[in-house]
Amino acid sequence: MSASNNNTPQQLNERRWFIKRLGQVIGATGAAALATTAGVSSALAYTPRPDSAAKDGAVLTKEQLITLRDVCATVLPKTDTPSAADVDCHGFIDHQLSQCHSVDEQQLVVDILEAIEAQSEQVHNKPFSALTHAQQTQLLVDLEALNGFVASQKVQFKFLKQLLIFGYFTSEIGATQALVYQAVPGGYKGSIPATPSTRSWGSLNYY
Amino acid sequence: MQLNDIFITDTREEYDVIIVGSGVTGGWAAKEFTERGFKTLMIERGRKVEHRKDYPTEGKGPWEFPERTKVNNLLIEQQYKQQSRSYAFNDTTKHFFGNDRDLPYSTAEGTDFNWIRGNQLGGKSLTWHRQSYRMSEFDFNANKADGHGNDWPIRYTDLKPWYSYVEQHAGISGNRDGLPQLPDSESLPPFEMNSVEKEIQRQFAQIYPDRPMVIGRCAHLSVPTEYHMQHGRVMCQARDECQKGCSFGAYFSTQSSTLPFAAATGNLSIAVDSIVHSLIYDEATNRVRGVRVIDDNDLSTREYFAKVVFMCASTLGTTQIMLNSTSKAFPNGIANSSGVLGHYLMDHCYNAGAGGFVEGYEDEYTSGRRPTGIYVPNFQYEPSRYKKHYVRGYALGGGASRGDWRGKAHGDGIGADFKTSLTRLGSWYFGLYAQGEMLPRFENQVSLHPTKKDKWGMPQLHFNVSWSENERLMMEDCAQECEGMLKKIGVQNINSFVSTDHNPPGSAIHELGTARMGRDKKESVLNGYNQCHDIPNLFVTDGASYCSSATVNPSLTFMALTVRAVDYCAKEMQQRRI
Fold first, then answer.
1. Which tens digits make up the pLDDT trace of B382-394?
2. How far apart (Å, rounded) are the C-alpha atoms in residues B331 and B239?
3. How far apart are CA B403 and CA A167, in angstroms?
4. CA A25, B127, B541: angle at the middle one, nearest 5?
5. Residue B495 neighbours by CB distance under 10 Å
């Protein structure tokens, strides 16, 4: 299975744990086989693509996807970890809207992307994608502060933003690099030290 | 375990025992009978699920699911509308839930019922929430004490040794708290409370001496014994993804705990994909002879025969089959001379709670996903402790945890600093929610629909069940009490809720009653050994047998009822009285 060649070091480490602990029960060979079949098959999963904004998506047009890609890169930009656009959150959002959301909810996203474009044209006389990163950031800050936007548009944006954040932290990079992923914690500890820079767990019981 | 050798389809053999159902109680009945040397046939309406092999989603990250663990909305609309109302239903677990398209039921006008299904080998033992508490002497006395429902024909002391027996085998983690309202289990070490919970426990003990807060007891191998490890079960890894199945065998399920023992005896046969249509009844001898089965796949019919039948098909599954088993002697359902079969349906009412933020403890976090929470046992457990305006009481579940991106996603923020803040730890949050007792009421009935049938030709169940004023008042009170308790200990920004109008009965997935036990055969279906008053070789040991719901999660009690009933039945068979 080709997916098993693309694992992050953390993931491989987690899988070793899984195999090791399982091996105590059912023997190493069986555990390895199980971890391979049950652990890494991603044939059906939404697969991030480098070119999601290159053509029309399932719900969004190519133009809307370009706007969305840059919204993703603005809300969650590249830092010491990749941006939301780097992990194809825009492609994921288009997919998720088509699979799990109503036509009304799809329209919320279309409307706010159109509104962002309209505001960009009005203020800067340029499409959102042609703005500098600072201008893009300011425009979305203005959106949340209701400068040049109305409250109903903020509601639309919040819906999109939550989908974006969900998409990022449930992506492999978001869950395992931006956060810390514990596939097999090995037990529960009620108190471990934390500092302001401690990252939260990306491995959750419910998403 | 060579499972393949024990699966059968057609047979002419007369078994000693047929067990209908393979979940928590069916698995126990199979283990107990086969270990006593009885040739046993377990019948399961769903497909075969083998331990480890058939847990296809186990160990997967959210990115490995097409919609990141969410379920396609068209699929929900067409096939999982009811099932998706369960907290545990998502794309990683949906293969262990029933398909609503094939499993229709109806509700009386103005009522609603949430029937969550688990039709596969292992039943809902694969997906249960694993909370495990003994019922107390107060619980068994409750109906008698306040006159609601009929008196249980047994008391705590009758069940006590059987609780110990099932606990030692299943593995129940918990503290020994020494509380009369929540008898201790023969427990494995408890899971740890986090520091916030420990502090709240200390404060509650001072302010509310009658409301002790304990760590939730659950069917997990916190520290397995040698016995568990010898049988291929190891320590709970604190993944808390249990409903996907657990290859560590760390929580109790049919697959991890009872089936391997039954299979090892050589006395077990299993028929899967076999939907029991009705019981075969012989009027001349007043005995059941076996069951009629419809094949799940090709709808063909076949029959299985045995000297004794144990109904372990889940509360509603069992009652549906019994109502559908009619004869001249029992025109309204087998063993139903009392007329109460289908009546007194109960659930638990989980429809109130409160939560808020706890200041401080910012230098602490937790590691691992604890598969249990904290628990405040029912503190209104006898009439002298009842509130004035309603009867019985509620337990409280809950816990403390630190927030993460899921909560922060609602906030304002754009850019690198916002991204960083999403990855950092949020404030501590502490919440409590109700686990309320639901009264047994004759009006809360499930019956066979006069005309509607499912694809196998089985009459559909028709529900006429509602919350009574008692449950409504209890939930209002619980929300206020929770809010008051949190205020007293300094929790901030408290939100309380009452959701009785939103979550109909069934939502706690604790269906109970409908074939209740009792001393008087005129007002009950079963005697004190879960044996039908009317028919000596027919037993019901699942949740259908309950006289009252109490407040504790029911599974541990129906495990104990089952092994006690098997012990009784086996002795009766040896004495040739059955």
1. 999 999 999 999 9
2. 50
3. 18
4. 105
5. 11
Contact call for B422 and A137, based on CB within 8 A = no
What is the predicted ipTM?
0.95
- Tell me, yes or no, if B180 comes closer than 8 A to chain A by beta carbon: no
**What pTM does this model have?**
0.94
Asked if A30 and A60 sit in the same domain, the reply is: no
Nearest to residue B346, comparing CAs of B113, B151, B521, B85? Answer: B113
pLDDT at position A12:
44
Please tell me what DSSP assigns to residue B472: H
Contact B499/B467 with Cβ under 8 angstroms? no
Question: Which chain B residue's Cα is nearest to A17?
Answer: B237
Low-confidence ranges of chain B (pLDDT < 50): 1
Residues from chain A contacting residue B405 (CB–CB below 8 Å): 165, 169, 179, 200
Tell me: do A61 and A150 sit in the same domain: yes
- CB burial class (10 A; 0-12, 13-18, 19+) of residue B298? exposed
Structural domain that includes position A167: 52-172
- Provide DSSP, B110-146: T---------BTTGGGTT---B--PPPHHHHHHHHHH
Is residue B65 included in any domain, yes or no?
yes
**Option in B52, B402, B422 nearest A34 (CB):** B52
Query: Residue B173 is which amino acid?
Result: S
- Enter the tokens of residue B427: 């404030």
* A127–chain B Cβ distance below 8 A for any pair: no
3-state SS assignment for residue B310: strand
pLDDT digits (tens, 9 = 90+) for A22-49: 555 545 444 444 444 333 333 346 777 8
Query: Closest approach of chain B CAs to the CA of A115, in angstroms?
Result: 17
Residues A15 and A95 occupy one common structural domain: no
Would you put residue A50 in left (φ > 0), alpha (ψ -120 to 50) or beta? alpha
Centre a 10 Å sphere on the Cβ of residue A127 and count the other Cβ atoms it contains. 15
